[in-house]
Amino acid sequence: MENKILVETSARHVHLTEEHIEILFGKGATLTHKKDLSQPGQFACEERVTIVGPKKSIPNVIILGPARTASQVEVSLTDARTLGCDAPVRESGDIAGSGACKLIGPCGEVELSEGVIAAKRHIHLTPADAEKFGVSDKEIVSLKVEGNGRSLIFGDVVCRVSPKFAAAAHIDTDESNAACAFGMVYGDIVK
Q: How far apart are CA 10 and CA 185, in angstroms?
C-alpha cells in the first residue's frame, strides 16, 4: 500500500463555536470526547444536535471537536435536498454566503445565517506525503477508488498539505456509496 492513500467517508457532522456549544448544551458546557479521528487533534463528541432546514430535520447529528472560530454544518448533497438547504460545495472553513439552518440542542437553539456546506472532496497530506505523491498544497488532482464492483475516479480533489495532518482522503457519504467504498479502502492519486 506504499503508493496508496487511505480513503475515509466523512458523514454529516457539525463544528461549533464555544458560544454555540453553551447555547445548545448549557452554560459552561464543553464538548465530551468520544473517540479520536484520523486527523491529529480532531475527535468525535458524545453531544448531538438536530439540523433543521426549511423542508425537514435530521436528528442526532454528531459534533466534531475541538471548538472552532465559526460554526459549520457539513452535509451530503442528498442531506441538503432532504433539509431543503442550500449547501454549496466548499472547502472546510469557506462558509461565506453558504446555506442557512437551525441547530437544536437539549438546552437551546442556534440560527445559522450561513455555514451549511457540502465538503469538497480532499486529501490531507503532510509535507513529506505531498513530496512522496508529487503534489502541492491546493493542487487539484483526481482520486481513483477501487470499490467493490463500482470503481470510480473522482475529479476535482483538492490536496491540503500541513505538518498537522495525517495522510487520508475524505469523501462524503454520497460519494462513498457511489464507489461502494465501505470498510478499509485505499485509492490512487491521479495527476
A: 13
Cβ density class 33-56: b for 16+ within 10 Å, e for less: eeeebebeeebbbebebbbbbeee
- The overall longest dimension of the chain from CA atoms, in Å, is 50
Q: What is the DSSP letter of 43?
A: E
For residues 122-127, give the mean pLDDT: 98
Position 134 scores a pLDDT of 96
Residue 32 φ/ψ, nearest 5 degrees: -100, 115
Residue among 87, 173, 157, 95 nearest 124 (CA): 157
**pLDDT of 3 strictly over 70:** yes
162 phi, psi to nearest 5 deg: -160, 145
Each domain of the chain, given as residue ranges in start order, spans 11-119, 121-190
58 by Cβ neighbours in 10 Å (0-12 / 13-18 / 19+) ranks as middle
Q: Which amino acid is at 131?
A: E
Q: Are 137 and 159 in contact (CB under 8 A)?
A: yes
Report yes or no: 50 and 103 within 8 Å, Cβ to Cβ. yes
Confidence class for position 7, pLDDT limits 50, 70, 90 = very high
Which grid coordinates belong to 92? 472546510
Tell me, what's the pLDDT at 146?
87
